[in-house]
Design goal:
Blueprint: H1 12-29, E1 49-56, E2 59-66, H2 73-86, E3 102-109, E4 113-114, E5 126-132, E6 135-139, H3 141-147, H4 151-161, E7 175-188
Antiparallel strand pairs: 1-2, 1-3, 3-7, 4-7, 5-6, 5-7
Helix pairs in contact: 1-2
Length: about 200
């Protein structure tokens, strides 16, 4: 189970509202509704970093994230959801006809902390960031669990995501950091439901 990213995890109302913001942002980006209403107070109005993952029929369709808040948590999630739908360079833009099979998943990320030894990496709790030179890659905590990886494989796959050789995390110049994430979703996107 993932550790919460904030002092207290979001309650069910805030979790539903955050998914509603993401859903409305995707619909708006596809020209199917207006921009999401963003809360002016409460936990969703506080600054926060996040990742938004989109899957169609279980297959990854887009994922964007930022450790640096883009304003409030809700604003960050809205921007990332819209971007994941149309700007992830690995995939063509999402099409309206895909909404019937679209699942939304939000990961609220905690601040990163240095990894001094691989034994500090707790699978299912920690995500990984590897930076070396101009290369940087990050994988969310649930990826290792979903793929059945051990800690070494998780570190190697994060290096590959960064465009580095698998063992680059051992390089003395590499910066390896861990982070916790509070998972919200996944939620199936109902194309008829406009969101917030």
């Amino acid at each position: 189970m993932s550790a919460p990213a904030a002092a207290a995890p979001l309650g069910p109302v805030e979790r539903a509202a955050l998914l509603g913001v993401a859903r409305a942002a995707v619909r708006a980006r596809l020209g199917l509704g207006g921009a999401p209403a963003l809360p002016a107070e409460g936990p969703l109005a506080a600054p926060g970093g996040a990742f938004v993952t989109l899957r169609v029929r279980g297959e990854l369709r887009g994922c964007l994230g930022s450790f640096a808040p883009r304003g409030s948590l809700a604003a960050t999630v809205a921007a990332l959801a819209a971007g994941a739908a149309t700007e992830d360079p690995r995939f063509p833009p999402l099409r309206p006809e895909e909404l019937d099979d679209l699942d939304l998943h939000v990961s609220i990320v905690a601040p990163r902390r240095p990894m001094r030894d691989p034994s500090e990496l707790a699978l299912g709790r920690d995500g990984v960031v590897v930076e070396l030179g101009w290369h940087r890659g990050a994988l969310l905590p649930q990826v290792a669990v979903e793929e059945g990886w051990d800690a070494k494989t998780f570190l190697e796959r994060t290096c590959l995501k960064a465009g580095l050789p698998p063992g680059a995390w051992r390089d003395p110049q590499a910066k390896v950091e861990l982070f916790a994430a509070e998972e919200v979703g996944p939620e199936r996107l109902d194309p008829a439901r406009p969101g917030m």
